[in-house]
Amino acid sequence: MEKDCIFCKIVNGETPTKFLFENDTLVVFKDINPEAPTHLLIVPRKHIRCINNLTEEDREIVSEIVMTGRDMAKKEGISESGFKLLFNVEKGGGQVIFHLHLHLLGGWE
Ligand code: 5GP
Ligand code: ZN
Q1: Ligand 1: does its nearest atom lie under 6 Å from the Cβ of 71?
Q2: What is the spatial distance between Cα 69 and Cα 76, in angstroms, rounded to a whole number?
């Protein structure tokens, strides 16, 4: 748990947020400022700053995040129409919250 990290607070239940899915590794919730009809965030419980900071021991976490992106797309009914999975990396890559998260975007007409 990183002090002053918004996503650590959400993951640890300090900021009440409805989880669409959760397990021991990660949680899934709606983006507060959606950029698509479906915009979910898949967030590991472990505080990792961004893709650059992944270590060998994080391989399973990354796998779980991506597979959950696939599963949530199916649950949301956007698998067939199509969707985007996106990691923003560091400020130049558009990252604003420095706790690793995967964006699931879709549901366009
Ligand atoms: P980034 O640009 O870091 O990849 O994306 C961070 C995302 O988190 C943004 O799309 C933003 O709307 C979302 N976000 C920021 N703060 C909160 C929050 O407190 N709750 C939720 N649900 N989403 C948030
Ligand atoms: Zn964090």
Answers
A1: no
A2: 10
